[in-house]
């Protein structure tokens, strides 16, 4: 497999807008469909959502999907048909396994302030597993200045949350100006800038909402030029084999 680096700029994403939601989609989603942009590696969905105060997604179904949520600001209230409920806030990672079938709702927990969060979907290794839910607060010191696995199904990773896919892991990092990290080498890698500005070695500047899709990556260096946060999916397989 040849090594490739594909930059996807924030302004080029699909956008869904309603009276209470602004959702920016890195991949085909809902009414937005491009057959050439359905996934990268094992990652099917990377939605950057802003939900208005006291609004949100009413109860709806999911099946056979690992859904990871990372809040950037505000608070998101979760409730599902297995009895799990709680409020997700910045630094608290969440994984919901839809498995054989689950109903859930996601609402802005604040009556006055919007909530912004990234929601990411990958397929599980097995279909029809029991629905499940896991959340864990990630220590800010662990995220600061280093790339930390927060959700992983890969052996050898000391991640806070388990993913039901043995070939995928999500890392996060918060970087101050001039601080850098090396991305993990992997057959498939997805880098997403949640905020701030960084420089990708050999490529150039990346800004909030920009993404990079790597194949056969041997580990690139990134450096922040202003306070920044990144999410990185490391994947050792792709859909279909």
Describe the 3D structure.
The chain has one domain (4-235): Jelly Rolls (Sandwich). Strand 2 and strand 3 form a beta hairpin. It has one helix at 140-143, and strands spanning 4-8, 14-17, 21-25, 43-51, 56-62, 66-73, 76-80, 85-88, 92-97, 102-108, 115-122, 132-137, 148-152, 161-162, 168-175, 180-182, 186-195, 197-200, 204-207, 211-217, 221-224, 228-235. The mean pLDDT is 95. The strands form four sheets. Strands 1-20-17-22-15-13-14 form a seven-stranded mixed β-sheet, with no helix packed on it. It is mainly beta and 241 residues long. The protein has one helix and 22 strands. Helix content is 2%, strand content 54%. This is Putative quercetin 2,3-dioxygenase. Belongs to the pirin family. It comes from Mycobacterium heckeshornense. Keywords: Dioxygenase, Oxidoreductase.
Helix and strand topology:
Elements: E1 4-8, E2 14-17, E3 21-25, E4 43-51, E5 56-62, E6 66-73, E7 76-80, E8 85-88, E9 92-97, E10 102-108, E11 115-122, E12 132-137, H1 140-143, E13 148-152, E14 161-162, E15 168-175, E16 180-182, E17 186-195, E18 197-200, E19 204-207, E20 211-217, E21 221-224, E22 228-235
Parallel strand pairs: 13-14
Antiparallel strand pairs: 1-20, 2-3, 3-4, 4-11, 5-10, 6-9, 6-11, 7-8, 7-10, 9-12, 13-15, 15-22, 16-21, 17-20, 17-22, 18-19, 18-21
Question: Quick recap of the structure?
Answer:
By secondary structure, the protein is mostly beta strands. The protein is built from 1 helix and 22 strands.
Pick out its properties.
single chain; 241 residues; mainly beta; Jelly Rolls; seven-stranded mixed sheet; seven-stranded antiparallel sheet; 22 strands
